[in-house]
Amino acid sequence: MPFEIATAIAAMFGCIVTRVIVGQSDKVSRWRVRVPIDVLSGGVTFFLVVATRPSLLTALVLGITVAALGASIIKIAEVRGRKLIDALLPGGVGDDDHEAGIARAMDQLHRIPDPEKHSG
Q1: What's the Rg (C-alpha) of the chain?
Q2: What pLDDT does residue 117 have?
Q3: 3-class SS at 40?
Q4: What is the pLDDT of residues 78-90, one digit of tens each?
């Protein structure tokens, strides 16, 4: 899947510079937290550039935006993941009621007609 390398460079430049600025503004440097978030921000930026093929300016702004989100990326993914789980398992699965959620999901699976029994 070809893409413009210039847009990737612009996005990664925006991402790296923003993460450095954000890191410098921290009063306490926590490398164990910053490095994984920096790597995640760079990866998400690169993935979005490859997937969307933006213009140079848009790629730069995209890199800055993703880097500014930083740790919020993890929270956004968590919220999306919970919504996906709720959509896949009717009734949802609460944190304190896993067994009931699994039972509801299995009940829903048993209600799906078997195509082998209905083919004629």
Answers
A1: 21
A2: 63
A3: helix
A4: 788 888 888 887 6
Tokens of 53: 């093929």
Cα–Cα distances in angstroms (integers) from residue 15 to residues 18, 50, 61, 70, in the given order: 5, 15, 9, 10
Q: DSSP 3-state helix, strand, coil percentages of the chain (rounded to 5)?
A: 75, 0, 25
Task: Give the contacts of 49 (CB within 8 A, at least 6 positions apart).
Answer: 3, 7, 8, 11, 59, 62, 63
Q: Please state, in angstroms and rounded to a whole number, the distance separating the CA atoms of residues 33 and 36.
A: 6
What single-letter amino acid sits at 117? K
Q: Tokens in use for 80?
A: 């999306």
Report the alpha-carbon angle 15-20-21, nearest 5: 100
